[in-house]
């Protein structure tokens, strides 16, 4: 039955190989032309570095970034991948399309990011600005994936990733290089951008008849446990995410500590509000799986600063509160009023916290300048706000820049998402029909009797039981 | 049916939010009043440190503790969390209540631990003594959680965590600061304390009618696989647990190596004994999930010393043997004779090994002093036993102190657990009735047809199948 | 029914304990006689090292190897363990026998590896050459396990591990010490050796009647998701695997980067080919779970070199292509023509890539010598090819050595695997009958109603539902 419903339009036998090969070929050519090993990676350059600066092999940046990087890598592929397996019939698509588009974004983006702000030819492949940014960029794409989960073909997803990665690079260049905004944990460049981009794609691809797939939109017992694998890994490694590219030394340690405290506080807040908004006082797995992470998002930009542990906890509490309320009250409104079908509720976790985290940053900034940085040597301020430290900016001006950067990000995400969404409407890209959303059988060989919710009552052809 | 059984007593709509908010508020206030960034975390102090001691940013303690810490963090939230999902209908509660109380204990404890032995105001937030101890303290609470799993409400669990964390801090202060005992891997402070505290709580909360929930106390096929995720992560990262706060250099490496060998040996022993004690020679998942970890527990205190690889293996073998026998023969006796209902069998893994690991330590100590440390310079002994190295103690006296520390720990755990258990009997705390233990539906929104063991035979309203 | 079928031959009540105890005893004795802590681990030797070389505790090798090592450790126990849980009724055996034989191989091998090339008595237990090699050796055994998965008893598996570990040590000694071949990522010593050893064991143990267990050879929906946990972890940490024992500095960073790019490319290629070879254009989980990893295997030996990022991508693409085609077309032929029943298809991932990775290495080698290393100082070449750097070998000669090393490895694996397979035919070792392959109930206490595919239609004795 389903086999026959997998009509011409959704067959990917040629489309998917074609797009994969094309994207891979383009990436290989771009790398061959533009990218070279940098001085930490190239045998010749590193040995020159060793001699010139009297370094030892153990001073290589590798040893000071690799563990954090692997944590972030785990978040992208295990964290996001399993978080989305909560859907009862879309586990294969969740974890494996996540794998596909993250792997693509991971090695494609690198090129673009380095195009801007650096020389064009002979661009160097540096560890921090390249590999870690590659995962950050994948993160933004996966947030958007959360909004359109179950309603798109892998061909659409790869195209979305292609354009989103490009816009991510442009937006990041504007924010960090032109405006001089701070965004170590990617609150704006990753969360705000990824969420609103994905929401706009979802808006443009609005499906009035999505109710026909409603019976598959929920979870089953074990799919919720798989999703918890994703949640816990995201929660565990968020401190590494926020600190992966901050300055070495106290900055990195402080970012990690602040993020821990914020996450712990948002977890308690989420349990509290989840019970409170349920008529029977029962907890909801959707809230725990998502809103408990809000503490990591909200301090993304500010965790680097002298936020103080209790400041981080207050931020985390508020984030957990706002995010859980969003899942309970805002998601239905987005769907019915604004026609935005947000499968994973990315708006509540990644989008809605844009304003709080910006305010959080601005407060931290004022606090920083008037407070704890003031009496110390110049160097410690220069790590965080080089432009304030060298006197070319006031703290107020920096605060205004941060707010302006948020507006730019929203603009790029909304316009970009709308255009890309419009492009993805092309029928040949293999989108599922409204009756077949959230369904693995459309794109996957699925084992028969495949899971709980759809298990046949009797199974007479079972060779074991008839024996 | 179940909805209506979730009567007034077990409704958490106001209770859970109230306790979460209260605990969070107290924590925030304590942090605001007492806790400051230390010299590795504060921008000003670290930059003074840099200047004064001619350090570089890469000398920050962060780079030498963070990877181990993240391993321990993974053990607490993934390891313990998934280990307990073996119950067929309590997977949500296992992983998510684990998440809740660990997140609470993680940021609450830090305060208390630093109250003792340090100045009261302006206490510094240091990485090793604070963050890693925070996870250790969570570990003790989670061991106790294992004893009462499925028989307590989240409100009870948070209260238990609150008091256990406090007593943990007091006990640790007595052991490490007053008695001068060694306990790098927390054999006494974490395992012995957590186990006997939880067992006493379980004893006081004894349910004579627990048989009415017997049908839910077992596992289903996939819940045992989820539990194996927890087991393997605990097993993998136990070397990081035991070495997280040992001295830098050879100590940390030696602790890691000894723990590996002990764990590998306890794994073989567990498989051997599990087959031997079963009438048909079949292996039992409960043994593999738990007793294979005994090798990590047993060398918790002694792994730091010159235990030698073969010594570590012998300790691991014996631990696996004792622990598996405990699961097979002792747990039923504890239940029927001593009225201790130990859901996860924490006595067999964490409690019963108290005496062996203390003996193991004392032997290692004598060996150390008479053996391998003797001929070396003073420094290497001072890392492990500063009081012996500076001549203020003999090895025998240190051994007696270790044994005395064990008795103290047992005392604090038993008395503390009894009192806290008595407090948790208050009906308003929402404990499940005897007929509804090990059941997620009491506190959770559970998807219909939710899992294997309770799947309805036929499912006529299924829109897919009726189509 | 099944209980009674678990006849005398497959009962392990005495056999499994006997073999476990024997192997453990031998290991303990070997360690007691031969193994001592090395200068990084021993308190005395390390403190002498500190004094003599003016080192600090933070220069201990531990800090520069431990994070990579833990990644590799995770691959062995979580990665391989869960990858094999795809079988619907063999999840316990997959993850737990993986655990057993890896734990055994992990601590047994260490001895052997150090027998060759070092002094016999007082052999030192060094971190890099011992612990990391221990995991590498386990990896080879687990690859062989993949070929015989579900068709062997744990007693057979332990014996296979015993002999394979021994031969692994001999082969590695020949390759690295006698021939002077390079194999940092273990392409030959681990992948080629493990795969062909396992395939030969499977060939010798050929079961003409395996069709009788055919209904259990597939997956169910959730077992495929468990397998994806394994896949993603293998994919994530493969860069650590390939770089775990390369030289410090640029070598290690370059290995990591090249492996990332190769893996990302093989993922895209796998999705492309998986859709292309399916008549309906549907993706196959078997391909994604396995072939996406081919990029890590193929650059195992060459990732250390100046492969360039685009070179790594091309290698990864080809590996994903070849591996996916192997799963689709070669595995059935191996079974029907060559009578090799390869449960996990290890030939496609680990075996078949032997020739490509050797060619890849030889090309990289020529490129290296004629290209990027040439103009630099001697030191940077010496890290990778000491024998070429000091002039005792030409690049061509080294290339010939690599090819010769591959032939040796194939020889040792094929001859060794055949002999060991013949030994494993002994009936007393408890192999499952042809009708009971891929079945946990033979060796495990399995909970009733245990999983999807075998759930009874109605469940009248369920106390909950009859209430």
TrEMBL record, chains A, B, C:
<keyword id="KW-1133">Transmembrane helix</keyword>
<feature type="transmembrane region" description="Helical">
    <location>
        <begin position="90"/>
        <end position="108"/>
    </location>
</feature>
<feature type="transmembrane region" description="Helical">
    <location>
        <begin position="258"/>
        <end position="278"/>
    </location>
</feature>
<dbReference type="GO" id="GO:0008519">
    <property type="term" value="F:ammonium channel activity"/>
</dbReference>
<comment type="similarity">
    <text>Belongs to the ammonium transporter (TC 2.A.49) family. Rh subfamily.</text>
</comment>
<keyword id="KW-1003">Cell membrane</keyword>
<dbReference type="InterPro" id="IPR024041">
    <property type="entry name" value="NH4_transpt_AmtB-like_dom"/>
</dbReference>
<feature type="transmembrane region" description="Helical">
    <location>
        <begin position="157"/>
        <end position="176"/>
    </location>
</feature>
<dbReference type="GO" id="GO:0070634">
    <property type="term" value="P:transepithelial ammonium transport"/>
</dbReference>
<feature type="transmembrane region" description="Helical">
    <location>
        <begin position="63"/>
        <end position="83"/>
    </location>
</feature>
<feature type="domain" description="Ammonium transporter AmtB-like">
    <location>
        <begin position="55"/>
        <end position="427"/>
    </location>
</feature>
<feature type="transmembrane region" description="Helical">
    <location>
        <begin position="285"/>
        <end position="303"/>
    </location>
</feature>
<dbReference type="GO" id="GO:0016323">
    <property type="term" value="C:basolateral plasma membrane"/>
</dbReference>
<dbReference type="GO" id="GO:0014731">
    <property type="term" value="C:spectrin-associated cytoskeleton"/>
</dbReference>
<feature type="transmembrane region" description="Helical">
    <location>
        <begin position="188"/>
        <end position="206"/>
    </location>
</feature>
<keyword id="KW-0812">Transmembrane</keyword>
<dbReference type="GO" id="GO:0035379">
    <property type="term" value="F:carbon dioxide transmembrane transporter activity"/>
</dbReference>
<protein>
    <submittedName>
        <fullName>Rh family B glycoprotein</fullName>
    </submittedName>
</protein>
<keyword id="KW-0813">Transport</keyword>
<feature type="transmembrane region" description="Helical">
    <location>
        <begin position="218"/>
        <end position="238"/>
    </location>
</feature>
<dbReference type="InterPro" id="IPR029020">
    <property type="entry name" value="Ammonium/urea_transptr"/>
</dbReference>
<feature type="transmembrane region" description="Helical">
    <location>
        <begin position="403"/>
        <end position="424"/>
    </location>
</feature>
<feature type="transmembrane region" description="Helical">
    <location>
        <begin position="12"/>
        <end position="35"/>
    </location>
</feature>
<dbReference type="GO" id="GO:0030506">
    <property type="term" value="F:ankyrin binding"/>
</dbReference>
<keyword id="KW-0924">Ammonia transport</keyword>
<dbReference type="GO" id="GO:0097272">
    <property type="term" value="P:ammonium homeostasis"/>
</dbReference>
<feature type="transmembrane region" description="Helical">
    <location>
        <begin position="128"/>
        <end position="150"/>
    </location>
</feature>
<dbReference type="Pfam" id="PF00909">
    <property type="entry name" value="Ammonium_transp"/>
</dbReference>
<dbReference type="InterPro" id="IPR002229">
    <property type="entry name" value="RhesusRHD"/>
</dbReference>
<keyword id="KW-0325">Glycoprotein</keyword>
<feature type="transmembrane region" description="Helical">
    <location>
        <begin position="309"/>
        <end position="330"/>
    </location>
</feature>
<keyword id="KW-0472">Membrane</keyword>
